[in-house]
User: What shape does this take?
Amino acid sequence: MIIGLDVGGTHTDVVLLDHTGIRREIKVPTLHADLFSSVLTGIDAVTDGIDIAAVKRIVLSTTLTTNAVIQGQVPEVGMVVCAGPGIDPVLFRTNRHYVRVRGAVDHRGREIEAVDPQELRAAAAQFQSAGIRHIGVVGKFSVRNPRHELQIHELLRSDFEKVFLGHRISGSLNFARRIATTYLNAAVFPIHRKFFEAVTRALAAKGMVLPLRLLKADGGNMRLESSLEFPAQTILSGPAASVMGAVAMAAGPGDALVMDIGGTTTDMAVLVGSAPLLDPLGIAIGAHRTLIRSLETLSIGIGGDSTVRIANGRVTVGPDRSGPAIVYGGSLPTPTDALAVLGEIESDRRSAAAAGLQPLAETLGVGVADLAAKVMETACRAMVAAAADLVAHINGKPVYTVHELLEGYRVQPRTLLVLGGPAPYFARHLEKLGTHQVRVVPRWQVANAIGAALARTTCEVAFFADTQQRTAGAPGEGFSQPIPADFSLDAAQTQALELLRAKALERGANPDYLEMEVVDSQVFNMVRGFNTAGKNMRVRVQVKPGLIHGYDELLAALAAGAAQGA
Amino acid sequence: MLKAKHRVGLVFFPAYDWAISPSHPEREERLLYTQDQILEEGLFDIDGIVELKPDLAGLADIQRVHFCVPDVWSVATESHFISAGGARTIGRAVMEKEIEKGFALVRPPGHHAMRVVHGSRGFCNINIEAVMIEHLRRAYGLNRVAVVDTDCHHGDGTQDIYWHDPDTLFISLHQDGRTLYPGSGFPGELGGPNAYARTLNIPLPPHTGEEGFLHIIRHVVKPILEEFQPDLIVNSAGQDNHYTDPITHMNFSAQGYAELTSLLNADIAVLEGGYAIEAALPYVNLGIVLAMAGLDYSHVREPDYSPERVRQEPSVTEAVKKTGDLVLGAWRDRGRLRERLLADRGCHRRSRRIYYDTDGINESQEEVVQLCEECGGALKIESNSDRGAHVLAVHIPAKACRSCRETGYRWYDEARVKRFDRIFLQDRPQDKYTVKQKD
Assistant: This one.
């Protein structure tokens, strides 16, 4: 059996499932001040009376690190940054203890300026006197040559409990994001470790001794041990859980849009076949833009509890939420109240909802039922327009070859997969617009927890080779090696895939069903003078987000359940 | 987060699957390290710097500017349509005020492509700046345009296209033609009689450095631009004046390029040449973008840069000043000189031989322009190539007066298909392109 758990803003959703079906689904209130008890209460409830030994897998998606970052409740860390020519790295400052030091490499990884041990020791002393125990070390172009970061690590490792190195965080080029991402990893590390060690102990006390898996923002999971090196990858895993739920139960051939409709917001993502599209760079959280791999998502301020108003003679919905809907004791009208007025949601407070919408209806000079219909239409139109923006944004991404520009794939979703609390009620109104085929994801209220449960382990590897300098490497994996002058792109791909396999297994992937793919593979002749001096190769490989093997029967049953329901 | 003072749009199109030939300077690798640098700098994360996807230029965009022999597809590849389209995308975004300024970092380049195109010259087939400008004129009614070409090679293609256009001021700074391809661009080349002193050439001696370039921008180009009052300034931003460029002999630097960009304050920059792809382009391009955005570029320096290393000799300084004064003098005296040229009524003729170094083609041209006080004048070009092509091209300018329009039609109607492979008419007032040929 598998436990999937997703901590949301209001509820923590938990499911227990096996090969044949969902054994249990439970919602418990999320206590933001005490996530630990939310998680434990959820697990207790879902396993009550169940043979604990039969649970073979547990995947958690929590808001722990997300909240810590957004609320700024992270301990101070020390950042050591070395740059070289370009934008002044002082402009990328992430926190108070942020020191720029000597040391630079260029775009091909050649050393321009050496690091200065004396300066580094001074920086370390300053950090220590401030009580700092975790530091981040980031060099410009360190993913081309991590030597300086490694030297600094060697010099300072004994002075701190943990040192996070920029080149291990991601293979992507983007210095400012590398700094931000390294900072976030160092900053959330102690909170993350403490929390999950406590969860592990609590589960062990119940008799559950199995590797904890954590969901990441890219819709894949990793083992707890791996997450200690990259704790920031758990930031914003919630939207990914829902998308994976849609993948599990509703994805078909062709492109689709996933809409996770909540109380305050609607989060959207795009599926091509059954694979969610990834953001090429990474998530943004608060003021930080990062290299944390994530799904390409768009969030808009429209949900079941969005405030409805009249502005300039037109109905507006959101982007704010003033509290619960009137039917649930709130004071300002919302789409949920409109649904109650239309009789689509059963409520004994329907007349209160109607009274709440009445002044708005009078302003427009229409009946309250007409206004309610208009509210739903307005909300749904805004959602579809935002979805169109997301698709346009994806299709509008620049490409760098003639072939891709002329023949590149264009996403054209014709289907909307809707989930989240008010999904079926919104679905009816989305359908009325006639723009998409609309499907409600089966078990829409706990699809996020199901998605977390069934998500596979994901990871990626960036590999480069430079036959002029006779070197190849994947700095993110701590790998580098000399290569012969005739090293080929095939050899580069083979090596990248081997590294990926090893990484995936370490993170907890199933070796028998490992779906690896080459995302990018480029080779350039380097010409100096009028002669070819070597080849420059860039290869990216990944295990993309998807579902674990062996649950086809369960998924078929869920999809069939949906068919009956409709 | 970093915030740009000016909203800048970038089209970055490195054409990683296109090259003139595998070891040619104009090859796949050319913008690879520039890409690495701008990605590592996180340029597109800066608030106010946006990357735009290029769209393809249309056939009409190219035929509005060029006479391609025998036709467009014979001289242009998809990559040229994208490169010209990328410039057009930037131009449209500026005109639509989506961005304040834009930079088309695209390849292949275009400033050696002339009005008649038999093939590739100086790595150029399609003049991407001209395609952009003429598109903007058609789509937005744009009128006066200044093109400042800071590529190390004389922008002879752009010069040729605007030679007779009184609404386009073309200024080229380049290494002296006696020492570098294409061997033209002397101060005496001042444009046709209908557009006299709308072409200005400022040849600079080899080893000109920051001081020389910035002197010319400050004391020659800027005052002329102020007087001309263009509605749009385009910079043909070649980067081969760099001290490490393998095919030129100048002493310019990334700091210098950034400063030049800041001083010139062009609305649009379009990449031209520049083949020091590792040592110069990553830094020069970064400097240009930061300068356009109004951001600090003082840390953008080549790893081996020192101001002393690239300082120019006093003799260079003197020669640069002299040329600058000469050009400024011609500009100030333009009214009198033009009157003298227009004193003759009728037509003005010139005969030229044009060499296409990239494709090894020789072309000879007989050009006739109607002298006109009111417009650019009807233009007729008879062109032969040593590949056996023989064409007649008639151009009626967009703002042609009635008489020049009639002259243009007459030339086209009277031309006999027996004499030419093809007879072209570029009817700009009606935005039409017509071809006559034997059946």
Chain B is about 30% helix and 25% strand.
